[in-house]
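re: that chain from earlier
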Amino acid sequence: MNLLRTAHQPPRTKHNALGTNFSDADLVAACLRGSAAAQELLYQRFAPRMLALCLRYVRHEFDAEDVLARGFVKVFRGLHQFAGTGSLAGWVRRILVHECLSHLRRRESLTLSLESCHTGHMATDLPSAEAQLQAADLLRLVQELPAGYRTVFNLCALEGYTHPEVAALLGISEGTSKSQLSKARSLLQRQVAALHSSLPTSYSYAHVA
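^ sequence. v structure.
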């Protein structure tokens, strides 16, 4: 997978390479002056983390790469709006989160799934799912959640959005946001229990902590 090709960035050459110790402010300024090398460096600095973010929201890698590419187009087009009062990484992240949500609305019937997900009994007395898994394991289990559960879990548990913020982003009530997060955690806990029960008896919890 070629991340630079995915976002349609120019190939790196000896003539356009920049040092990686550019500050965010210097990097933004260079991008706004039209430096292709600065644009490439900005992409290289943030794309791997943003692709990991997209993969948490979007089930398939091909779709995640497409979301990443469209998100970075918006990053570069809107870079003049970056005020510099917060981190550049946080600003880029918010754009990619919104692009993920737009994709889910178009492709996974997000609003419907938020209101119609299974509401049957789920265990709530299991150890914390997030605390017991390695990142790759958690990513796989999160990807398997229904779109509504997955989206609210990502926004609340991993991105730090509040329930009022999630409600505004998704056009749902705060109560629905809280309910979906609770159900997502419970379902993840059940998945963790199932994963552990399938491991050999010699495989300790320390391996997945």
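Residues 174-197 form the longest helix (24 residues).
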